[in-house]
């Protein structure tokens, strides 16, 4: 049985960035993901905001990782063809109390070296966002807070790791494991694997994996659900800037922003729950979000809803990340990456590689592999439909071509389930939600997924 | 994108080759309009009837009963015979209204093209309101779809999206779905209607009874659960009780809504309540060069009604081209 330098448990945002970093540093990487595809857990649904870290606790590990993650994303995104929708953000004070709190928000931003923030008065707010509702008293503009495609980067990272020789197993739940002399022996639903060091990036199951393999966990995951409503693309012309509320201790609050895919999104809620898998929406919460969105942007009144979804944050009993190395056990836990992990992932990966080196391991770094550019899904940049020879448009609402579908089902990391195909192409994510394309997709994906779109039929 | 040169100029461009668009275009030719081009994003003309594998279609138009696909074919043949040009498998992605002529951007396998037209008719049709836009609570498993998608599974591809679905709604299209389910040997577990009574001509409600599908009025779907596929739905009943139904799919039927995204994106003044552009008595939108057909002002209309609505709009559009329509 081959021996990997590191086994990374989980191919969420954090695990994918981790696999890339360790592969680039020259380690022999093994990724074990229980889902049928990457981003099957917390990372499948978030607000997609690339944070500057302006509101993170100054001096915290989270703040350092967010800023390092932001910087590295900006540095590599050109090579990988990853988009940024440059929006900037405004922390808007709607009440006197919120206005009073803006000083603190600004001071925190400056303490976090986000020095390009500035205050906007009501007239400047109106000039920047003419459709915003009445009553915005003052705002703090954070010019570099932007929106990205929340999925393509992580596929790109995992593809890079794979190109450098990483072994990536899906449908491989780590059920148990034992430390033998010099390595870990891991029992997975796809058989036994060996690795010198284990990095637990199991997100919503971080504590479970620690308990299963170490017998204890330093923290407890308390899933915190966030629901969202996505409005029709017609809404995108109503808003430029991300509209943030003045943050509270508990959550970043309800955000209104454009998406990279040309829609407008409102959310998330913050609801504690026990279940680690069930990310259900509920009508009352969705209606409240819509009402809040209309309050902030009255022109959204009557705007059709394209989609609704919910994501689960891997929160713990504490606010900060729960990242710790256990040198005597050759184990690193990367847990509690609650609400900034999409941005921070690359930074977390660098930090964890540092911890790993301190365990006494080192490798010879390799050059970044040549990977084909990622297919662009962002609405503000050229998409495949605008280039000839795409075989026709399959999903009309999102203008997804047959070539895009076929490419997502091929290559080194083909989509492992329908969710993965949707995240890779945006098919069936638009306003008709599959009225036009679902049957065609069932044909194009026939024989590909363990959970197929079509069930076997009986002859009439 | 707007860099591409205009490659065709026509008198009238019709977006959508459904019954309305084909009726409209055919009539324009009969009215002597020199060049009429219909663009549709599907590979076959005909609109929704392409996948309605059941009768009755065509009584008004052809004086006989046809299935949807046969009807769609005939409408298209008739249009072509009348001299209408069809451009299929081509999506209209944008409408520019700045200049003298309207310019429409299309995308197809042959790339991006631009078509200039003196008049534009939007016949982009209707679709059902999917689960998301209804804000129905629960998870998002496989097996949740609309009747249009079900028909495409069954009639276009010979496939089944589920075996024992819950059917939501009692418009005519919900009844048609019971027949479509039979085609694939699927057995709906129940039919539920939020309101106290049926949303179609009440005697039609004999059908669920005939095929043995239990019917619940005053019942709402308040939860959908399952992963990766639907496992059960929870209903809330008018009397305040709730019940769970095991199923492997949830079919959301009806609640038709205009496919008005192009009109919205083109910046036409919208009628928010109806979800379509504001139109005058001649079918003209806030840009009087753009007409729209088949607009769902009552509940969903039959294909035949849409077809004749298209013809009526064609008469106005032809009069307008001839300078005979009163200014807006
Ligand atoms: C509502 C919401 C909004 C957010 N908004 C933003 C935002 O705007 N910007 C931002 O930067 N971040 C945002 N985030 C945060 C970000 O999404 C998370 O921090 C990030 O997704 C956490 O990733 P992860 O890899 O730690 O966890 P996960 O994505 O949960 O990954 C863990 C993986 O491990 C796998 N796994 C679990 N157990 C096992 C096992 N035993 N064996 C094998 N595999 C296993 C799981 O299947 C999963 O794929 C938001 C999050 C939510 C929920
Ligand atoms: C599931 C279902 C069952 C039905 N059953 C019956 C029945 O039994 N009997 C009956 O009489 N009626 C039935 N109807 C109703 C009937 O099909 C519709 O009322 C009728 O098709 C509407 O005609 P239309 O031309 O307005 O639109 P559609 O038929 O919807 O045609 C619109 C066309 O526009 C095209 N289009 C839209 N946007 C673009 C774009 N941007 N670029 C290019 N092309 C575009 C579409 O591809 C489509 O072909 C049913 C409808 C459905 C959905």
From TrEMBL, chain A:
<dbReference type="GO" id="GO:0004368">
    <property type="term" value="F:glycerol-3-phosphate dehydrogenase (quinone) activity"/>
</dbReference>
<dbReference type="InterPro" id="IPR036188">
    <property type="entry name" value="FAD/NAD-bd_sf"/>
</dbReference>
<dbReference type="InterPro" id="IPR006076">
    <property type="entry name" value="FAD-dep_OxRdtase"/>
</dbReference>
<dbReference type="Pfam" id="PF01266">
    <property type="entry name" value="DAO"/>
</dbReference>
<protein>
    <submittedName>
        <fullName>FAD/NAD(P)-binding oxidoreductase</fullName>
        <ecNumber>1.1.5.3</ecNumber>
    </submittedName>
</protein>
<keyword id="KW-0560">Oxidoreductase</keyword>
<dbReference type="InterPro" id="IPR041854">
    <property type="entry name" value="BFD-like_2Fe2S-bd_dom_sf"/>
</dbReference>
<feature type="domain" description="FAD dependent oxidoreductase">
    <location>
        <begin position="5"/>
        <end position="352"/>
    </location>
</feature>
<dbReference type="InterPro" id="IPR052745">
    <property type="entry name" value="G3P_Oxidase/Oxidoreductase"/>
</dbReference>
UniProtKB/TrEMBL annotation, chain B:
<protein>
    <submittedName>
        <fullName>Thioredoxin reductase</fullName>
    </submittedName>
</protein>
<dbReference type="InterPro" id="IPR023753">
    <property type="entry name" value="FAD/NAD-binding_dom"/>
</dbReference>
<dbReference type="Pfam" id="PF07992">
    <property type="entry name" value="Pyr_redox_2"/>
</dbReference>
<dbReference type="GO" id="GO:0016491">
    <property type="term" value="F:oxidoreductase activity"/>
</dbReference>
<dbReference type="InterPro" id="IPR036188">
    <property type="entry name" value="FAD/NAD-bd_sf"/>
</dbReference>
<feature type="domain" description="FAD/NAD(P)-binding">
    <location>
        <begin position="13"/>
        <end position="293"/>
    </location>
</feature>
<keyword id="KW-0560">Oxidoreductase</keyword>
<dbReference type="InterPro" id="IPR051691">
    <property type="entry name" value="Metab_Enz_Cyan_OpOx_G3PDH"/>
</dbReference>
């Amino acid at each position: 049985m081959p021996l990997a330098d590191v086994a990374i448990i989980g191919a969420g945002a954090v695990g994918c960035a981790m696999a890339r970093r360790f592969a680039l540093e020259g380690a022999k990487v093994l990724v074990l993901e229980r889902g049928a595809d990457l981003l099957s857990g917390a990372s499948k649904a978030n607000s997609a905001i690339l944070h500057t870290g302006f509101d993170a606790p100054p001096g915290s590990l989270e703040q350092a990782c967010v800023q390092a993650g932001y910087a590295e994303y900006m540095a590599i995104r050109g090579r990988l063809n990853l988009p940024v929708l440059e929006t900037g953000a405004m922390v808007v004070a709607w009440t006197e109390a919120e206005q009073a709190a803006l000083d603190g928000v600004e001071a925190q931003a400056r303490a976090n070296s986000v020095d390009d923030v500035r205050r906007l008065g009501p007239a400047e707010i109106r000039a920047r966002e003419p459709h915003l509702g009445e009553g915005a008293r003052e705002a703090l503009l954070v010019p570099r807070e932007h929106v990205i495609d929340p999925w393509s980067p992580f596929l790109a990272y995992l593809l890079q790791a794979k190109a450098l020789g990483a072994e990536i197993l899906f449908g491989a739940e780590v059920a148990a494991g034992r430390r033998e002399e010099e390595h870990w022996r891991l029992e997975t639903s796809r058989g036994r694997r060996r690795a010198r060091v284990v990095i637990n990036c199991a997100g919503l199951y971080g504590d479970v994996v620690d308990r299963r393999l170490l017998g204890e966990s330093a923290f407890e995951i308390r899933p915190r659900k966030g629901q969202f409503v996505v409005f029709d693309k017609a809404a995108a012309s109503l808003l430029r800037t991300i509209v943030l509320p003045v943050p509270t201790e508990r959550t970043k609050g309800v955000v209104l922003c454009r998406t990279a895919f040309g829609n407008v999104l409102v959310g998330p809620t913050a609801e504690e729950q026990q279940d680690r898998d069930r990310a259900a929406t509920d009508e009352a919460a969705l209606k409240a979000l819509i009402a809040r969105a209309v309050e902030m942007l009255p022109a959204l009144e009557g705007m059709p809803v394209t989609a609704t979804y919910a994501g689960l944050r891997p929160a713990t009993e504490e606010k900060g990340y729960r990242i710790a190395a256990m040198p005597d056990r050759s184990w690193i836990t990367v847990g509690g990456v609650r609400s900034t992990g999409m941005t921070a992932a690359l930074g977390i990966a660098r930090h964890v590689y540092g911890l790993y080196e301190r365990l006494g391991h080192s490798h010879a770094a390799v050059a970044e592999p040549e990977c084909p550019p990622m297919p662009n899904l962002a609405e503000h940049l050229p998409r495949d439909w605008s280039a000839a020879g795409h075989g026709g448009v399959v999903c009309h609402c999102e203008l997804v071509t047959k070539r895009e579908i076929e490419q997502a089902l091929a290559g080194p990391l083909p989509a492992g389930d329908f969710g993965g195909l949707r995240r890779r192409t945006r098919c069936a994510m638009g306003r008709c939600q599959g009225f036009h394309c679902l049957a065609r997709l069932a044909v194009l994906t026939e024989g590909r997924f363990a959970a197929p779109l079509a069930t076997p039929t009986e002859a009439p | 994108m707007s860099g591409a040169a205009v490659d065709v100029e026509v008198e009238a461009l019709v977006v959508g080759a459904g019954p309305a668009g084909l009726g409209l275009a055919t009539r324009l030719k009969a009215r002597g309009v020199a060049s009429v081009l219909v663009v549709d994003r599907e590979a076959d003309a005909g609109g929704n009837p392409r996948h309605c594998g059941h009768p009755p279609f065509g009584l008004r138009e052809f004086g006989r009963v046809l299935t949807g696909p046969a009807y769609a074919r005939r409408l298209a043949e008739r249009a072509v015979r009348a001299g209408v040009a069809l451009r299929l498998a081509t999506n209209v992605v944008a409408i520019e209204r700045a200049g003298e002529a309207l310019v429409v951007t299309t995308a197809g396998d042959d790339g991006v093209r631009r078509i200039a037209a003196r008049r534009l008719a939007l016949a982009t049709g209707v679709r059902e309101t999917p689960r998301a836009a209804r804000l129905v609570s629960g998870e998002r498993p496989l097996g949740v779809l609309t009747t249009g998608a079900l028909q495409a599974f069954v009639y276009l591809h010979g496939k089944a999206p589920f075996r024992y679905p819950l059917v939501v709604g009692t418009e005519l299209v919900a009844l048609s779905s019971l027949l479509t389910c039979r085609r694939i040997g699927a057995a709906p577990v129940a039919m539920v209607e939020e309101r106290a009574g049926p949303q179609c001509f009440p005697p039609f409600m004999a059908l669920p009874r005939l095929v043995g599908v239990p019917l619940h009025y005053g019942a709402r779907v308040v939860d959908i659960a399952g992963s990766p596929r639907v496992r059960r739905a929870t209903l809330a009943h008018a009397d305040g009780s709730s019940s769970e139904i095991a199923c492997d799919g949830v079919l959301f039927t009806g609640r038709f809504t205009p496919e008005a995204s192009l009109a919205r994106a083109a910046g036409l003044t919208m009628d928010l309540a109806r979800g379509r552009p504001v139109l005058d008595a001649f079918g003209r939108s806030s840009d009087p060069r753009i007409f729209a057909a088949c607009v769902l002002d009552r509940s969903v209309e039959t294909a035949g009604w849409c077809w004749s609505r298209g013809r009526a709009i064609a008469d106005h559009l032809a009069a307008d081209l001839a300078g005979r329509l009163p200014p807006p």
